[in-house]
Amino acid sequence: MYNAEKGIEIETIKADTIYDGVIVxxxxxxxxxxxTEVEKWKGSLEQSAxxxxxxxxxxxxxxxxxxxxxxxxxxxxxxxxxxxxxxGKFFRKxxxxxxxxxKVKLLSDSEGYLKLML
Length: 118
Description:
Elements: E1 18-30, H1 31-34, E2 48-58, E3 61-70, E4 72-73, E5 79-80, H2 86-94, E6 103-108, E7 114-116
C-alpha cells in the first residue's frame, strides 16, 4: 500500500554498463501481438515474430527488457531470416537462435534502460 510518510529510493542499474543476462521467455506470434505503437512500425503487422524477454539480476533487484524479432516461416518448418536482420545478427553473435535460458549480453544506456547487444 502506498505510504507517503515512508518512502525509500531503490538502486537501479548503472548507465553505460554491459551486463550478463539470460533469456527468460520467448513468445511466438505476429508483430501486432507484441507492439503497442503500431503507427511507428515500418513493416507488416502480420509478419511472424517472437518477443524475447531477458533479465539481469543485481543484488535483490531483477531488471527486464525485451526485443522483438521478425522472421519468415517456410513450408519445411524452418525459421527464415536475412543476415542483416536482427535475428541474423543475434544468430551470428550468440551462435544460435533465441531460446530459453540462453546467456546474452545487455547494455544499459545513459537512462539506465537495458538493450540486447547484437
